[in-house]
Amino acid sequence: MLSVQKIGITPLLLSRVSEGEGEPSPFVLEQAQLFRSDKRRRQYILGRLAAEEMLRSLINDASPITNGPRGEPIWPPGVVGSITHTSSIAIAVGALAEAVRGVGVDAEEKARRISEGVIEKISKQEELGWIYEKREEVNERALTLFSVKESIFKALYPTYRRELSFRDAQVTIGETGTITATLSHTAGDVSIHEELLGQVIYDPSFVITLVILPKRT
Question: What's the chain look like in SS3?
Fold first, then answer.
């Protein structure tokens, strides 16, 4: 299922595939055999099916997507993209590199429980106030914050190739699901400071978040 999602004025093409949909190419089936577990093989296939559908629509090309050293997808020249998967769905999102420097997507099952220890680990002080503002929504808000930060890391990784901490990102989520975020990270002689934008997609079963790394003005 294809859809166009806008973050500000930036259009992103999103493809969502559920288990049992699509027909994987021989190349994808071959690559899937590199994973040891059936679960991981199924997730990989779903993710690549979503990515191929997105690329066919975005650039009229669904050539096989190879993997980088950490298993990350290597996108065709001129494209930025991101993939996420759960046990039953996969989502790929992409845009032209002339529009944005990076994109990130993450999906989490709403049934997943987030412990207080994890909440403390992923949250800055201002974010904790937002999470606990409505007691009946604590788990979903914590899950949303976790998802946003995962999307942020995915949007930034192709540019910086750095492992980042959850506390490096300061996130604000508006009432309509708009996301604004600041990422500040310093390690040795490397200093990263970026402003990102995004959107929460409301779904009955999943928390889905999209983030973009805008072009510098």
Answer: CEEEEEECCEEEEEEEEECCCCCCCHHHHHHHCCCCCHHHHHHHHHHHHHHHHHHHHHHCCCCCCEECCCCCEECCCCEEEEEEECCCEEEEEEEECCCEEEEEEEEEECCCCCCHHHHHHHCCHHHHHHHCCCHHHHHHHHHHHHHHHHHHHHHHHHHHCCCCCHHHEEEEECCCCEEEEEEEEEECCEEEEEEEEEEEEECCCEEEEEEEEECCC
129-138's contacts with Cβ under 8 Å and 24+ in sequence apart are 130/172, 130/173
CATH at 43: 3.90.470.20
Q: What is the pTM of this model?
A: 0.94
Domain hosting residue 55, numbered range: 2-214
Total of domains in the chain: 1
pLDDT digits (tens, 9 = 90+) for 139-184: 999 999 999 999 999 999 999 998 899 999 999 999 999 999 999 9
First to last CA, the chain: 33
CB atoms within 10 A of CB 141: 21
